[in-house]
Design goal:
Order of helices and strands: HHHHHEHEEHEHHHHHH
Number of strands: 4
Largest sheet: 4 strands, antiparallel
Helix content: over 70%
Radius of gyration: 25 Å
Length: 428
């Protein structure tokens, strides 16, 4: 499709991997539950895929709707993220629902029929998530308030609430021609040149653009005054033997216009609304959609707090990072909602409703842990082994994965129970 692979595109791939893992975990967990219920392995495989279908479709279609809206309304890196994500979702749904089924049935057909090979779900004691909802809600309110408090504090002390990148605020573009005997590549620029530039600017927000076929590199930094430009040139000469006449600097304006920012925000807002309408339509209960959107808002605010306090630069990857977390979180939430919907029959009292929610969350807890842990490890490897730009991208996603798992398990179910309880009381 001639897509340019950028960090937002990698975010789309990572989210696709997470959702593909999630789909298979849901299927295999269902098979284990059916074996534990006394069914034969063959029937457990058949029923497991059938029962997992609704959760997988709802979770993937919800995120696919968001990707479609972003693909139509988004620009630049947001559109690239949407297209990569959409392709990944379609492929992961196909592999989970078709290829995985063929492989499991093939294993069974060649003689791998012992239930020990497939596992048997253990009977777990139901955890009282609903009973601890006041603790969870209080903790979440504190976490949500961290972002506005931090932004207000930094705005008062530093003059800017967030550490906006060069795309938002502009800066200085310095063209440096390194000696011909120096091997100039992305690795050497990140490991050797960037620390020297950071020492002068006192800011990790540095971008490199290498001129093809030469040792000339364009280094973009925050706006430097004349004294800092002279110090920059001196450092280049001391560290890399670059003559002063091989260094030139100019001021650059921001490339992300207010119109592009507005379009990105509009795209995210419409995508979120469309996801919630779908949840409302599928689950036929506005309370599911309401608790889902509040959990998404919670996750966004926690990740925003991470950007605020760690001073990670806010640039083109910011929107993609937020979208990755929203997609991941809503997918985890839908799995729990799907189990609540499945278990909800004949519930007439508040105590029965409480037990139902606790049981549904407990039954899907293994899936939540496995999926979140798998994706977290993937991002953690990027964080440990990647260059500074990748680390700045990976850290908020890791924060969002942990926060999304917490909100899905500890917030959405108890929040839905709180809303639903009132309607039961009114009906009485």
């Amino acid at each position: 499709f001639d897509l340019t692979l950028t960090l937002p595109g990698i975010a789309g791939i990572v989210l696709s991997i997470g959702m593909a893992v999630d789909a298979n975990v849901i299927i295999y967990a269902r098979i284990r539950e059916e074996i534990a219920a006394g069914k034969s392995v063959r029937n457990a495989i058949k029923t497991g895929f059938q029962k997992a279908l609704s959760a997988i479709l709802d979770g993937n279609i919800t995120t696919l709707i968001a990707a479609a809206v972003l693909g139509v309304l988004g620009t630049g890196s947001v559109k690239g993220f949407a297209m990569t994500l959409a392709l990944g979702i379609v492929l992961s749904m196909f592999t989970a629902l078709v290829i995985s089924r063929l492989i499991v049935n093939a294993f069974y057909a060649v003689g791998l029929q012992d239930e020990k090979l497939y596992g048997k779900a253990k009977v777990r004691k139901t955890i009282d998530f609903v009973g601890r909802r006041k603790v969870f809600f209080t903790l979440s309110i504190i976490l949500v308030l961290l972002a506005p408090i931090g932004m207000a504090a930094y705005s008062a002390t530093e003059g800017r609430a967030l550490n906006y990148s060069l795309e938002f605020v502009g800066g200085t573009s310095t063209t440096v021609t390194f000696p011909e005997d120096m091997d100039v590549n992305l690795d050497s620029l990140d490991t050797e040149v960037k620390p020297v530039v950071e020492e002068v600017t006192g800011d990790a927000n540095v971008q490199f653009q290498q001129v093809v076929g030469s040792n000339q590199v364009i280094i973009k930094t925050r706006t430097l005054d004349m004294t800092e430009r002279e110090a920059f040139a001196q450092k280049m000469e001391e560290s890399f033997d670059v003559p002063e006449d091989q260094i030139s600097a100019e001021t650059i304006s921001s490339t992300v216009s207010k119109e592009m920012q507005r379009d990105a925000i509009l795209a995210v807002t419409i995508a979120t609304v469309c996801m919630l309408i779908y949840i409302w339509f599928r689950f036929k209960d506005i309370r599911f959609a309401s608790s889902g959107v509040l959990a998404l808002l919670h996750d966004v605010m926690v990740v925003l707090a991470c950007y605020t306090f760690v001073r990670i630069s806010v640039g083109n990857t910011f929107i993609a990072c937020m979208l990755t977390i929203l997609g991941y979180s809503i997918n985890a939430t839908i799995v729990i909602f799907d189990r609540i919907r499945e278990n909800m029959h004949g519930v007439k009292t508040v105590e029965e409703l409480k037990e139902l929610v606790n049981a549904s969350i407990t039954q899907t807890l293994t899936r939540s842990i496995y999926t979140s842990l798998t994706t977290f490890i993937t991002i953690a490897v990027l964080f440990v082994m990647g260059v500074s730009t990748v680390r700045e991208f990976a850290l908020p996603i890791m924060t969002g994965i942990v926060c999304g798992a917490y909100s899905s398990v500890c917030i959405t179910g108890p929040l839905w129970f709180t809303m639903k309880k009132r309607s039961l009381i009114r009906e009485k």
